[in-house]
Amino acid sequence: MTERLTADLASGELLDTLAEIAEAASQVILPYWRAGGEVFTKADDSPVTLADQAAERLILARLEALYPGVQAVAEEQSEAEGKPDRAADRFWLIDPLDGTRGFVQGKESFTVNIALIEARKPVAGVVSAPATATTWRTGPGGGAQMRRFGEAWRTIRVRNRPDEGVALLSHSVTDEEATRLAARHGCTRWQGTDSSLKFCLLAEGRFDAYPRTGPTSEWDTAAGQAVLEAAGGRVLAPDGSPLLYAKPGFVNGPFVALGG
């Protein structure tokens, strides 16, 4: 039902729908958090929990019911069934629980991510943080917004780069590498943070850069990139071009996400 998807994207109704789905998935995840549930190991040695699987089932079922026939590329489905050989011109990218390692450890920085990709670019995206009951999204008519679950949306925007910028880095890098990466992008300080929350914190204007050197999957970044770009930021490949999607294997190379 591509006509309905086109109409809902143009009207902004799609963004309300995606936010509702992401927040519903968050409610599915929360009972598993800090509950000591079983953790499985995937082929790439990364963890997966029953929460990941239950949230993804909900997201896929809701999207298929509303927009049947639109291709969905989702993390757990791709692990179980294999990644598709190619992507349609328009498709969903879904990470039902980004930051699973932190989730298993009882940390708060895990997220639900749903993005719509069109012509290799993220044109709509929603990120929800179940532990803090917060959602960020691309806004109807442009811009980016955030809200606490059930509250009104408010506009967010990246900040102008301060004299002493602050970078966000993955916890997987060493302190020495983090300091070097932060300095490369004009930041004198850095902070470690998990998941796609990094894109959202840049979009809020709280930080200034998120450089990434190691590989990530496209579902890790698409929704966060959509929100950050809508807030006035950028996500760039090493050659300075925008980070694009539907790459071979749905894998990202190095990139940097920038605020103002």
Give the H and E element order: HHEEHEHEHEEEEEEHEHEEHEEE
Shape field: globular
Structural class: alpha+beta
Number of strands: 16
Report the mean per-residue pLDDT as an integer: 93
> What is the fold named in CATH at topology level of the largest domain?
Fructose-1,6-Bisphosphatase, Chain A, domain 1
Any idea what the CATH architecture of the largest domain is?
2-Layer Sandwich
**How far is the first residue's CA from the last residue's CA?**
38 Å
Indicate the low-confidence ranges by residue numbers: none
How many helices does DSSP assign? Answer: 8
* Largest β sheet strand count, sense and barrel closure: 7 strands, mixed
> How many domains comprise the coordinates?
2
Please indicate the percent range of residues in DSSP E strands (runs of 2 or more): 25-35%
Whole-angstrom Rg: 17 Å
What would CATH call the class of the largest domain? Alpha Beta
Q: What is the name of the CATH superfamily of the largest domain?
A: Fructose-1,6-Bisphosphatase, subunit A, domain 1
Helix content range: 25-40%
**Strand line-up of the largest beta sheet:** 3-4-5-6-7-8-9
